[in-house]
Design goal:
alpha+beta; five-stranded mixed sheet; four-stranded antiparallel sheet; 29% helix
Length: 296
């Protein structure tokens, strides 16, 4: 007997997971695959978009087999991932972010701390946009990483046609949709979602004035459909082409989204993984020095 199912893809720091759920929210199956990390030297941590995609596809097929679920029964899927930076060249080719130039290493992980000087340079602007991240950007956010790449490998920066947060990259890989999530951009890119723009003065001050040209123009709300699975992605995943894919979301914020559903008037959640964070839902923005947010 056929049933209605939904697939969730979760990419953490060390593994990719796929969960299948029925329309009552009951978990039918869960599959995990390890993903690679490259540690070239201290503070440098990279990953491979090719490896991550392959492991997602393997986990999807395993979960479907465990639950005895067919592609026809899966109505849609969603993706969350760590806040890691993916660099993509023309034609979807990977751009190396590693010192050794290996194009398989095209992701700067969230935990990478190479961009200390670039972080300080951005914070020295004192831009008004910094108040939304507690007064200063973290070394783990995306702008310092992008500025590091432009400073150290300007040719690679020039060759990059799209910088994606990992969740947005995976949605693009699945659908071909040139779109980013309001969650990823607001939380990690100093994007001012309430104004629909980047902090142009700050970008200009640090030499990233052209960055908006390298980020998808379309910004999707949480839960908004990005598009349907492409023929190739459907083949890779073992699903049907055209299956709807939701906008991406940061992994911890997926827990925050659940909190909104459980406590819409306000609440606190502790989200745990390789890193841990406290997330608070409140109707009005509260600016706290040293505390990341408000966002989304």
């Amino acid at each position: 007997m056929k049933q209605t199912c939904y697939a969730g893809i979760d990419v953490g720091s060390a593994s990719a997971r796929v969960g299948l759920f029925n329309e009552n929210g009951e978990r039918l199956a869960f599959a995990v695959r390890p993903i690679k990390q490259f540690h070239g030297r201290t503070n440098f941590v990279e990953q491979s978009s090719t490896d991550i995609w392959q492991q997602i596809c393997a986990a999807m097929k395993e979960a479907m087999a465990k639950a005895n679920v067919s592609a026809d029964e899966i109505r849609s899927l969603g993706v969350d991932a760590t806040c890691s930076l993916v660099a993509v060249a023309q034609g979807g080719k990977p751009v190396s972010v590693a010192e050794n130039g290996d194009t398989d290493q095209d992701i700067i992980m969230w935990m990478d701390h190479r961009a200390a000087e670039e972080t300080a340079l951005i914070n020295a602007t004192g831009d008004e946009a910094l108040k939304y991240v507690g007064g200063e950007v973290s070394i783990e956010m995306e702008l310092p990483k992008i500025l590091w790449l432009k400073t150290h490998y300007p040719d690679r920066y020039t060759n990059t046609v799209r910088f994606f947060d990992l969740a947005d990259y995976l949605v693009w890989r699945a659908t071909g949709a040139d779109a980013a999530s309001t969650c990823t951009l607001t939380c990690k890119w100093n994007y001012l979602a309430h104004e629909g723009r980047f902090a142009e003065d700050m970008l200009q001050a640090v030499g990233l004035h052209d960055l908006p040209e390298k980020v998808p123009e379309k910004v999707l709300d949480l839960g908004q459909a990005a598009g349907g699975l492409s023929e190739q992605a459907a083949k890779d995943l073992g699903l049907n082409a055209g299956t709807p894919v939701a906008a991406g979301i940061i992994d911890a914020h997926a827990g925050g989204l659940a909190l909104i559903g459980a406590e819409p008037d306000g609440g606190l959640a502790i989200i745990s993984g390789t890193s841990n964070c406290h997330m608070i839902v409140n109707e009005k923005p509260v600016m706290v020095p040293g505390v990341w947010g408000p966002s989304c």
